[in-house]
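In this supplementary section we document a worked example of the pipeline. Step one takes a protein sequence of length 493 as its only input; no multiple sequence alignment statistics are reported here. Step two produces a three-dimensional model, which step three serialises into C-alpha cells for compact storage. The input and output of this example are shown verbatim.
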Amino acid sequence: MSSPTELAHLHTNIDLPALGHLQRLMASWGMLADLCFADLLLFAPVTEGDGRADGNKFVILGQMRPSTSQTLHRQDLVGRLMDEVDRPLVVRAWRLGEIVEGEINATDRGERARIQCIPVRWQGQLLAVMTRESALTVGRRPGELERVYVETFDRFARMIVAGEFPFATDDVEGEESPRVGDGVLVLDTGGRVEYASPNAVNALHRMGIHSNTEGMRLDEAGMEESAVRTAFATGAPVTEEVERRPDVICLMRVIPLLDGGEVTGALALLRDVTDLRRRDRLLLSKDATIREVHHRVKNNLQTISSLLRLQARRLPGGDGRSALEEAERRIRSISLVHDILSREVGERVLFDEIVEPLVRMAREGVLSPERGIDFRVEGDAGELPAEVATPLALVLTELLQNAAEHAFVGKREVEGAVTVRLHNDGETLTVEVRDNGVGVPEDFVIERTDSLGLSIVRDLVSGQLGGVISMRRDDGTVVSLEIPVAGREGRRA
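The serialised model returned by step three reads:
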C-alpha cells in the first residue's frame, strides 16, 4: 500500500509545505475520530492532464478508525479514487469551501451513513476535504459524554476549516500521548473545568483530588496547571507531566480551542503513566548497573594487560616475549570495547570509535621503526551490538598486526600502506583489510593455516560472528569479511 506522501505526489499537485500540514492533521486525528465516534477519511483533489485540480475526482490519502466506537468501513480505503457519483457531498464541500452534512450510501454493502465534509485549509489555500462518516443512529438519545465529545469535535472542525488546526508548531504525538479514552477535561475561556469524563475523574482521584472539579480551575483543586497557562498564553498545544504525589505521575496534554485566532477554551487529555515511568526508572537503574559492570571488566582487563606487559619486559627477546606481547595486545583490544560500553547507554557501540585506537595499536606495533607504514580507514561501520563489536575488534587487531609484521617483509621498494574499508547496509557489515605488500602465496588457504593469529580470526568470524572470511592476492593481500548484523538482538534473545 502506498503512503500518503506517495499518493499525493502521484495523484495531486500538493506541494511539500502544504503536504506537511496534511501530515500533521493525520498525525493527530486519532483524537478527532475518538471525539466524534466515527471514521475519518481525507480526500485530496486529483490533478487532471492540464495540471489543475477541478474537484471532480478525489484520492483518499488517509483513513482513521475510532477507538470509542465501531468502525463503519471494514475495508481499507486508502488509495481509492472517487468521483462525484461516489461522494457528491465531498465535491460540494470542496466547491463551496464550507462544512456540508448529509446522508449517503457510504459502504460497498450499500449501508446508509451520515457524513460530514470538512474543508481543510492552510494559509488560506483549500487543500483537501476531511469526512466524518458514521452509521445512522435511530431511536437513541446521546448521553452527556457523547454530546460533549461531539460538540468539541465540531469546534475542532471549525478550526480545520479556518486553517487553525493542526498547529504548525505541534510536535508529532508519540506512543505515550494520551488518547480520548484515557480521560478528557474540557476547559472554558477562563481555564475552568466545564466537563470531566469518568476516566478523567478516576485519574484525578488517583492523584488525590476527590472534589468535584467542574467550575473550578485546576490549581484551585490542588493540581499544577502550568501547562494550561502556557497553552492559553501561546495558543499552541502543551504536554507536561504532573507528579502531585510521589507514586502517581499523570501526563497532561492541553490543546487550545481557537475561534478567529482567539483562545476560547481548551481540551485537556490525561493519562496515568505511573507504571511506564516506574519501568523507565528500572531500565535506567539496570543500564547504570550494566555500564558499571563494563567499567569494572575494562579495569580488570587493563590490569591483566599491564601485568603481561611487565612480565614481557622481564623476558629476553624471543618466542616467549613475543607471545606475551601478542596476548597483551589482544586483551587491550577487547578492553577498548568495554571502555566504550561503560560510557554509552545501551548495548550498542559506535564502532568507528574503536577502529582508530586499534589502528594506533597496530602502528605502534610495527617491528621496523625505520620503515613507515601508512594506515588508513575508509567508510563507516555504524553502531554495532556488543556481541559483534567485541570479537570484531579482536579480528581487526589480528589482521592489522599480521599486515604490519608480515606483509612488507623483503619489499622495500614501495611505501607500505594498509587500508581498512567498512560498509554497513543494515543487513551485512562488510570489512576489507588491504595491503600493498608481498601478498599471500598462490596456494594459500585460510582453513589450513598454521598461524595462531589467523586461526583466531577464522574461528571468530565463522563461529561467534556467523560470517564469511576470504583471503586473496591482489597487488598485496586482501582480507574480506561479510558479517550479518540484522536482527542480532532478536537472535540473541
